[in-house]
Amino acid sequence: MSRKNEYDECAMELHALLEEGAGLISNLANAAALIHHKFGFFWTGFYLVEGEKLTLGPFQGPVACTFIEKGKGVCGASWLREESIVVPDVHMFPGHIACNPESKSEIVLPVFSKKGKIIAILDIDSDKINDFNESDRMGLEQLTAIITGKLEA
Ligand code: SME
How far does the centroid of ligand 1 lie from the alpha carbon of residue 3, in Å? Predict the structure, then answer.
């Protein structure tokens, strides 16, 4: 199955899995588990916006850095720029934060509240170089939109 079709299937699964009455952490935990195991990524997780920094939230994969400052690393840059970032080679991204040397490429997307505020950052790492492209960005933006739709406020 192509990744595009896998994202479409994953969108249906995520929509069925997330509970509108559940708290953010429960839904993000299930979202991380679903995406991670469906695609076999190296690391899949969320950083939560807490004041002026990001704090590690639900994830699947090896241990990771706990805090990321606004503007720092790929996650902090995505938060600051309010846009998704595809990094084909992590060594080419100035300021990239290496939580694990196995990580070779990365895609990072903001998760918006219903009012359009960034509440979390979805970070996915691959142990293969150049593993993400525009089609992943579109597929994953579909998934973050589903998370937004299930938020309580
Ligand atoms: N590489 C990320 C840090 C988080 S870990 O990859 C899990 C970054 O540069 O923001």
Answer: 23
